[in-house]
Amino acid sequence: MVAVSDAEVFFTGFPGFLGSALLERVLARGDGPVACLVQSTYLETARRRAREITAEIDGVDDDAVRLYEGDVTEPDLGLGDESLERVRELYHLAAVYDLAVDRDLAEAVNVRGTENVLEFADDRDVNRFHYVSTCYVSGRYDGVFTEDHLREGQRFNNHYEETKYRAEVAVQDRMDAGLPATIYRPAIVVGDSRTGETDKYDGPYYLLRLLLAQPEWLSVAFTLAGSSDAELNVVPRDYVVDAIAHLSASEETVGEVYQLCDPAPLPVPRFVDTLAEAAGHRTVTLPTTKPIARAVSSRLSSSLPLEPATLDYLDHPARYACPKTLQALEGSGVEVLPFESYVDRLVAYVLENPAIGDEPMV
After folding, report:
1. What are the CA-CA distances from residue 246 to residues 22, 253, 350 (Å)?
2. I need a surface site. Which of 53, 116, 274, 361 has the fewest CB within 10 A?
3. Is 357 a domain residue?
C-alpha cells in the first residue's frame, strides 16, 4: 500500500548546515509539515537535528519534520512507493560543495541531481521552486558579475563551479518555460556571525588554519600577482538563511535571481591581514607564482590544512554585485555585516573546535 503524505513543502539538503537552519525558519513561520529527502548515511543525524529543531519552536510538534530516505542522483529521487503528490513548494539545497571534487561525483549530484529534482517538481506541478546556486557560477568572469549574468562564455576554476553553473542553466531553462522559481546565489559561506558555528572548515578556513598551524610570532601566507586586485567575497550563514527566508516568503520574488554577497568585500591582502589580526599572528606574505604555490601546497597538504584548489581564489577576477538583492531586502533589517565585525567569532570557534574537518556531505 502506498503511503500518502500531507506535506506540501519539500526539502533537499537536510541535515546540511544551510538546510538545517533554513528548515527551522520555514517551520517557525508556519509552513510545516515539511518532507525532507535524506540519504541513508545521514538518517540518524537527520533524526537528531529534526528533534532539536522541533523542540526549539513553540507550537510545532515532533511530526512537523518528515524524513524520507532517498537520493537526488536516483530517478524519482529514490523514493520508491512513498507518495508526495501534495508537495507544492520545493527547496533544493542538496549539492556537493568541494573545490577539489571529482568530475563524475560533481556531475552526478550537482547536475543530474538537480535535473531529477526538477523532474520531481514538474511531475507534481509545484507552484514554488527555490534553488540555492552560488555566485561562483561566474567562473573566472573578468568583471562585475550581477544577477543578470549567467551564460558569459566563462571558464571555471574547478568541477564544482562548472557543475553548479550547468545546474543553474537547467533551472533557468525551466523558469523560461514557466516554472515559478527563485534562485539564490550565496557567495562564500562561513560560520554564524553571532556564534562562529560551522560544520566544515573549507574555503577561507584553509587560510586561517594554515596561519594557526604556524608560530604566532611569524606566520607565512602566499600572495599572487593578481591578489591585490581580487576580492574574497564572504558572507555568514545567518545572513544567507535570513535572506532566503525573507525572499522565499514573498510572491514578488518569483522569476528572480538574487546574489547573496557582500556588496563591499575585502581585497584579498586585507582579508588575509584581517584573519591574521584576529588570530593574533604576525604574518608575512610571500609573493610567488601560482604554479609554485600550488606545488608547495600539494606537498604540504598531507601535514598541514591546505587545499591547493583554494589558490585560484587568491587571484579570482570576478567581482560580485547584488542590486536586486539590496532592493528586495530594503527595510527588512536583513543585511550583510562587515567581515571585520565577526571574524573574531569565527577564529574563536575554530580554536575551540579543532576536530571539525573539511569533508563535504555526499
Report:
1. 11, 10, 29
2. 274
3. no
Residue 346 has pLDDT above 90, yes or no: yes
100 and 208 part of one domain: no
- Domain co-membership, 176 together with 244: yes
Residues 48, 97 within the same domain = yes
Q: What residues pair up with 129 in beta bridges, in sequence order?
A: 90, 181
Residue 329 resides in a domain: no
Q: Identify the CATH number of the domain in which residue 70 sits.
A: 3.40.50.720
Integer Cα distance of 65 and 325 in angstroms: 30
In the chain, % of residues over pLDDT 90: 81
- Average pLDDT of the chain, as a whole number: 93
Same-domain pairing of 134 and 210: no
On whether residue 332 sits in a domain, the answer given is no
Bridge partners (DSSP) of residue 89 are 9, 128
Q: Cα-Cα-Cα-Cα dihedral of 189, 191, 192, 195, to 10°?
A: -170
What's this model's pTM, rounded to 2 decimal places? Answer: 0.96
Tell me the C-alpha distance between 329 and 335, whole Å: 8
Pair 85, 53 in one domain: yes
DSSP string, 184-224: EEE-EEES-TTT---S---THHHHHHHHHTS-TT-EEEEE-
Number of domains in the chain: 2
pLDDT tens figures, 295-335? 877 776 666 666 788 899 999 999 999 999 999 999 999 99
159-172 per-residue burial string, b: 16 or more CB within 10 A, e: under 16: bbbbbbbbbbebbb
Q: How far apart are CA 165 and CA 104, in angstroms?
A: 15
Same domain, 239 and 105: yes
Report the pLDDT averaged over residues 59-64.
Answer: 90
Which range marks the domain in which residue 183 is found?
9-189+233-260
SS3 270: helix
Q: Could you give the C-alpha distances from 350 to 189, 192, 208, 210, 356, in angstroms and in order?
A: 15, 12, 9, 12, 8
Do residues 240 and 295 share a domain? no
Same domain assignment for residues 94 and 238? yes
Task: Give tens-digit pLDDT for 77-92.
Answer: 999 877 799 999 999 9
